[in-house]
Amino acid sequence: MPHAKGKITARELLDLQSHLMLESNLVGQFNHFARECTDPQLRQMCESFARSRMDSFQRLAQHTNISPIQ
Amino acid sequence: MHGDQVTDKNLCLALINQLKWDAVCLTSKILECDDDRLRQDYINILNRTFAEQKQAFDFAKQHGWYQPMLAEQTMIGQVQSDTQKMVNEIQQSMMTMHQQAQYQAMPQQQNLNMGQGMGAFQHYAMPAMGHQQQIYGGSPQQYYR
């Protein structure tokens, strides 16, 4: 559930913004790792982690009242 | 494989380090969070991060890419000795606190003993019949007779 407008603290908002950036970077990095690695098991793991980070990003993005990415 | 080519090992270790850093960042955010729902979302993501980091660590360990160094016996002995010192210090500290608590309780006990001469206070402090015996002498039966 997203926050009601104006109910989030300044600290929470700054933290949220920085963590969204971090999760977003992880999605890109893990996808990159999946493309670069040669071991199929490792590739599968990187892809799975990238999806998981994307899910985390969307979950946290709800707290900014932004609709999830399709 | 070329020397400068990115190896699976490097990628896996980078994966582990990124997940470790994510866990650190999530922890600091949880500690600063006021909103319960946001906090719970961070906690859920942190738990997932722990599981993923463990999965990546196990994979690296299986392939011999990540081998934590075992502690030497001398180091273990030193830690055991230091821990024993800390245990002793804690015990000493607890004993001092216990003694202070006993000392603080002593004046109250002294006041109660002094109050035996004052019948009015005596009933509040020590309702037991035995103390009336001390004040008036003899048994209660003798007094009320």
TrEMBL record, chain A:
It comes from the Bacteria. This is Coat F domain-containing protein.
TrEMBL record, chain B:
This is Coat F domain-containing protein. It comes from Desulforamulus putei DSM 12395. It comes from the Bacteria.
